[in-house]
Every structure is written in structure tokens, then in C-alpha cells.
């Protein structure tokens, strides 16, 4: 992992958990899972000790080698990750934002993970 190694430790995750408000959400980058799958697996194991709901989402980051970056998502409230597209759309429209990439459907779809990652995460639990 290199210089950022301390950002993937149990101690760091415990500190983040302690700093969050109720219904807080922890998010952290976890590399490109096609090339760095072990990072997500290790994060999943560690975060599971501190949060009731641990998952990942992906986004296209064209400037990062491999392009599809994986991000850890952790919270004690599973409902926060399960907002439907219609609710996201209503919030997005109410905010009056104009985006070139983001849409509520992209948001929902980003939590759909490739099977190889789902298999690795399942085997790690």
C-alpha cells in the first residue's frame, strides 16, 4: 500500500468510527479491485469489527491506473446505503444541481459490484 498504509489499519478505522456522529458514513478509497483485490478484502474484514453495514462501491477515475476505483462504505445504519433511485432523484432535483457525469441511477448502480469481488468478500467472512 505504501505511504498510506496507516489509513488501512484497525486503529485508523476505530478512530474514524469514534469521530462519526450517529448515522455517520465512513468512506475510503480501496484501489482498483481488478488489480488490488486484497485491499478491499482486508478493509472489509477490519471494518466489519466496527460497523454494522460494510460494503463497497465503484466509480470511474480515468486518471488512476486501471480506471475503476473501489471505495469502502461503512455505517451502522444499513438503510443509508439502500436509498432507492426515486428518492435520490427527488433529492437531486431539489438541490438544483447540474452535473456532467453524476445521476441518481449512476449512484445506485455504483453499488453493483463485479462477481469476482463479491466472491472474494464472501469468502473472507
TrEMBL record:
**Coiled-coil stretches noted in the UniProt entry, renumbered to this chain:** none
State the Pfam families in the record.
Answer: Spermine_synth
Stored InterPro entries:
PABS (IPR030374), SAM-dependent_MTases_sf (IPR029063), Spermi_synthase (IPR001045)
Q: Which residues form the PABS domain?
A: 1-76
What domain of life? Bacteria
A Gene Ontology cellular-component term? cytosol
Keywords (alphabetical) are: Polyamine biosynthesis, Spermidine biosynthesis, Transferase
| Biological process, per Gene Ontology | spermidine biosynthetic process
Q: Which GO terms of the molecular function aspect are on file? A: spermidine synthase activity
Gene3D superfamilies from the UniProt entry: Vaccinia Virus protein VP39
> What SUPFAM superfamilies does the database record attribute to this sequence?
S-adenosyl-L-methionine-dependent methyltransferases
To which protein family does this belong?
A: Belongs to the spermidine/spermine synthase family.
Q: What is this protein called?
A: Polyamine aminopropyltransferase
State the organism's lineage: Bacteria, Pseudomonadati, Pseudomonadota, Gammaproteobacteria, Enterobacterales
Amino acid at each position: 500500500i505504501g505511504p498510506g498504509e496507516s489509513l488501512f489499519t484497525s486503529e485508523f478505522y476505530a478512530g474514524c468510527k469514534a469521530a462519526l456522529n450517529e448515522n455517520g458514513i465512513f468512506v475510503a478509497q480501496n484501489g482498483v479491485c481488478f488489480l488490488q483485490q486484497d485491499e478491499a478484502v482486508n478493509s472489509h474484514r477490519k471494518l466489519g469489527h466496527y460497523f454494522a453495514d460494510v460494503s463497497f462501491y465503484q466509480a470511474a477515475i480515468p486518471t488512476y491506473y486501471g480506471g475503476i476505483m473501489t471505495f469502502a462504505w461503512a455505517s451502522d445504519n444499513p438503510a443509508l446505503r439502500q436509498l432507492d433511485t426515486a428518492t435520490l432523484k427527488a433529492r437531486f432535483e431539489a438541490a438544483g444541481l447540474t452535473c456532467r457525469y453524476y445521476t441518481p441511477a449512476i449512484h445506485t448502480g455504483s453499488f453493483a459490484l463485479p462477481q469476482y469481488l463479491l466472491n472474494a468478500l464472501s469468502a473472507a467472512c
